[in-house]
Amino acid sequence: MAKSNITTLITSVALMISVAACGPSLTISNVDYSQPIESVLSPDADNVVTDQRYAISFSVAPILEEEDVTSADPIRLIRNNNGYYFVTAAGFSNVYVFEVGEGELDLKRIINLTDDSLGQPAFNQRGDHIEVIDLATGDSYRVNEEGRMGG
């Protein structure tokens, strides 16, 4: 009887391993998630922005609260090649970096650009980084998901 139980156990374990090994295992590497140009979005009455082109919609209310402002229009949004979203707006001092979660955007980092607020920010995709230009002042910043680059 003990021999029968051991044989059944070994057969079951072997079957489970073979079934698990036969599961789907396809990985596509070197994926570039970047959006070539920024999205300029106006929040609705509920502070939700929707980008039809890239199929994303989210509330900017938590960002407005963090910036201690009641509204911002337009909101600037761009996605880098690693899949992180960058968000800012005129009147903000920061760029917010989000990673995609399951049905949510998770804050990865807040990048402080200036002690004053940005006057007229714009994003540019630059391969290994995102360029943030304040068109009002001419100031330019290089950022990625890890923070500010070069100063």
Structural write-up:
This protein is of the alpha+beta class and 151 residues long. It has one domain (39-149). It is 18% helix and 36% strand. The protein contains two helices and eleven strands; from the N terminus they run H-E-E-E-H-E-E-E-E-E-E-E-E. The chain has helices at 2-21, 61-67; strands spanning 39-41, 48-51, 56-59, 75-79, 85-89, 94-100, 105-112, 121-125, 130-134, 139-144, 147-149. The strands form three sheets. A five-stranded antiparallel beta sheet has the order 1-4-5-6-7, with no helix packed on it. The chain has a four-stranded antiparallel beta sheet with strand order 8-9-10-11, with no helix packed on it. Strands 2-3 form a two-stranded antiparallel ribbon. A hairpin with a 4-residue loop joins strand 5 (85-89) and strand 6 (94-100). The longest helix has 20 residues, at 2-21. The relative contact order is 0.13. The model has no long low-confidence stretch (mean pLDDT 91).
Radius of gyration from CA coordinates = 23 Å
Which stretches of 5+ consecutive residues score pLDDT under 50? none
Strand order of the largest sheet: 1-4-5-6-7
Shape: elongated
In whole angstroms, the N-to-C terminal distance is 73 Å
Order of helices and strands: HEEEHEEEEEEEE
What is the number of strand segments? Answer: 11
> Mean pLDDT, as a whole number?
91
- Computed structural class: alpha+beta
How many structural domains does the protein architecture include? 1
In DSSP terms (H or I, runs of 4 or more residues), the helix count works out at: 2
Strand content: 35-45%
Helix coverage percent of residues?
10-25%
Largest sheet: 5 strands, antiparallel
